[in-house]
């Protein structure tokens, strides 16, 4: 492996949901900086015994960059292990910009996001024919500002499937905005710690989900999924329809006509 920084998505929780490529790089790393607040420590079992390990949960951006800079100067392979997929709420842009200023090469290795893990946990598909062909990834405004055009109420008006990150602690506000936007009682699910051993799934509607979440005392590390895809009638995909032709198969009716 090259002397550079690898931003790797560790997946949503289950250590086996890291990619094969990500695991191989992790195994050969000299330095590992991992997001200790959300990344399973089981990943560290695959690190070399001589690897330097840093938990970024207690570090500032400046401190993280200092470790990267010094380690690169020493010719080491550095892994920055992020939760889920690093491109979604991963705060990697600011790190990559600093590395570019220092002329330190880097690579991004994608991972399984918590929003897909959450859908898998409740065995649902976001994109159903005749229901929704769009998935919106968003969050409600807290200490991090959200553009007015992306306010949750505005997005809910679209009627698409939605995955809401980093917002379960403000569930009252989430439900209020979703009700105003959707304008009806839409199915909703809250998945706490998707793929972890203590995973918990709650399914309800906008009318009752708030009480269910409060009774389970879920206040963090949960994904909110909302939309008709959770509980609805839908049309089968044309892809496997016996009368639908495509580049790899002729439809049944077409074969008969020939």
From TrEMBL:
> What GO MF annotations does this protein's record show?
precorrin-4 C11-methyltransferase activity
Q: Which residues form the Tetrapyrrole methylase domain?
A: 4-209
Pathway in which the depicted protein is active:
Cofactor biosynthesis; adenosylcobalamin biosynthesis
Q: What class of enzyme is it?
A: transferase
What is this enzyme's EC? Answer: 2.1.1.133, 2.1.1.271
UniProt-recorded name of the protein: Precorrin-4/cobalt-precorrin-4 C11-methyltransferase
Domain of life of the native organism: Bacteria
Fetch the PANTHER family from UniProt.
COBALT-PRECORRIN-4 C(11)-METHYLTRANSFERASE, SIROHEME SYNTHASE-RELATED
Record family assignment: Belongs to the precorrin methyltransferase family.
The answer on whether this UniProt entry bears the keyword Metal-binding reads: no
Q: Which UniProt keywords apply?
A: Cobalamin biosynthesis, Methyltransferase, S-adenosyl-L-methionine, Transferase
In its UniProt record, which GO terms are filed under biological process? methylation
Q: Record's Pfam families?
A: TP_methylase
Whether S-adenosyl-L-methionine counts among this entry's keywords is yes
| CDD domains with a match to the protein in the record | Precorrin-4_C11-MT
